[in-house]
Amino acid sequence: MNLLELIKTAAAEAVAAADPVSVIFGSVTSVTPIEINIDQRLSLTTEFLILSESVQEMTVDISGTNYVIRKGLQAGDTVILLRVQGGQQYVVLDRVVVT
């Protein structure tokens, strides 16, 4: 193995060891307070979750009437999570639509 190959291998192993972000699927089990299960072995609660705008309810008031533009998370929703380096925080990126 030449020096270039050795450096490439070391760099790839360093990135894999750092594991900066992992993509994970989860299932919403509770909305208030929010709780998401991953692989039915890990339950994430509010303090571990960062919610993106796309999973939060959005309403607009037009002439005194409230309209729901986007529903928030519901129990049973499948979501895409990004595990932030270190595994202490998870970004709830979006809902998954199963067809």
What does this structure look like?
InterPro entries: DUF2577 (IPR022555). It comes from Paenibacillus alvei (Bacillus alvei). This is DUF2577 domain-containing protein. Pfam families: DUF2577. The radius of gyration is 19 Å and the shape is elongated. It has a single domain, classed as OB fold (Dihydrolipoamide Acetyltransferase, E2P), CATH 2.40.50. It is an alpha+beta fold. The protein is about 15% helix and about 45% strand. It is built from one helix and eight strands. The strands form two sheets. Strands 3-2-1-7-8-4 form a six-stranded mixed β-sheet, with no helix packed on it. It has a two-stranded antiparallel ribbon with strand order 5-6.
Characterize this entry briefly.
This protein is of the alpha+beta class and about 100 residues long. The protein has one helix and eight strands.
What are the salient characteristics of this protein?
single chain, 99 residues, alpha+beta, OB fold (Dihydrolipoamide Acetyltransferase, E2P), two-stranded antiparallel ribbon, 8 strands
Count of separate DSSP helical elements: 1
Classify the secondary structure makeup into a structural class: alpha+beta
Total discrete domains? 1
Please report which band the strand proportion falls in: under 5%, 5-15%, 15-25%, 25-35%, 35-45% or over 45%.
over 45%
Shape: elongated
Instruction: Quote the average pLDDT.
Output: 89
Q: Which spans have pLDDT < 50 for at least 5 consecutive residues?
A: none
Largest sheet composition: 6 strands, mixed
User: Cα distance, first to last residue?
Assistant: 48 Å
| Helix content bin | 10-25%
Sequence of secondary-structure elements? HEEEEEEEE
Number of strands: 8
CATH topology grouping:
OB fold (Dihydrolipoamide Acetyltransferase, E2P)
If you compute it from the alpha carbons, what radius of gyration comes out, rounded to the nearest whole angstrom? 19 Å
What's the CATH architecture name? Beta Barrel
Strand order of the largest sheet: 3-2-1-7-8-4
Assigned CATH class: Mainly Beta
